[in-house]
Amino acid sequence: MIADVKVLLEEAKAGKYAVGAFNTINLETTRAIIETASELSSPVIVQVTEKTFDYAGARAIFHLIKNIAEFYAKDIPVGIHLDHGKSFEVVERAMDIGFGSVMYDGSRKEYVDNCMMTKKIVDIAHSRGIAVQAELGNVPYLGEMQMENIKWEEYMTDPDQAEAFVKETGIDTLAVAIGNAHGFFRERSEPDYERLSAVAKRVSIPLVLHGASDWHNGRITEVIERGISCFNVDTAIRLAFIGGLREGLLSQDEADLRKVLATGKEYTKSAIKEKILAFGSAGKA
Ligand code: G3H
Ligand code: 13P
Ligand code: ZN
Question: What pTM does this model have?
Fold first, then answer.
């Protein structure tokens, strides 16, 4: 069933577990996410980016997720979320299509500009019953930075600024930067756990961690303890899908594309299962 993302994450915060927000691009990934969550009786968030709007069609992918959630997963709550909306136009488009939750990512902008646009979006979204996530600090992308001499301080969320930002904008969830980075193995050697605790102390809304799909379970547990209620997961499941496809193509002389894609889907399901178990959301549906 379709669920309210804000409620899902507030329940996770209260229950000291985290919900996985998994990126989808197609039918197989969407089914893998929702089937795995259903098998584990876990709440789940399915999310798409602007690039996927271009790839799959924004309406097509939204209704694909919605139909699968409504008709094949009546037993678990499924949130549908726009991930990393980088402009007012794309966020507005997602709201018009029916997304119940949107991220406006103004993290590359100056603080005042990020704050102003986030507030404008929150006002419109809230009048329509839609939740908003924003990012403060900056979770960099693979390829965006040199690995040597990274000045992590420049990327991190400032706890005092986070408090002011949440107050001024009225957002529902906040994506934080504590040394995490999108893609595999680009992180700071250790996350800044103390900074996370400081943000969690000043901010009462659920906190979201992007770019941590390569983290080991010890780190995952530590940041949940310190206030993370949602993990965005993309690279881990994309790599699993590609691994499955490779296996499917190598192991059989197959002309039925569905069988090749099904191998990709099965590998994706295993990766998702591992994450849901680590996040502690199994059995919380
Ligand atoms: O941060 C989110 C995704 O990893 C970016 O994926 O290639 O769909 O923009 P994308
Ligand atoms: P990874 O690509 O590192 O899994 O990060 C996913 C993410 O943050 C999506 O918003
Ligand atoms: Zn992200």
Answer: 0.97
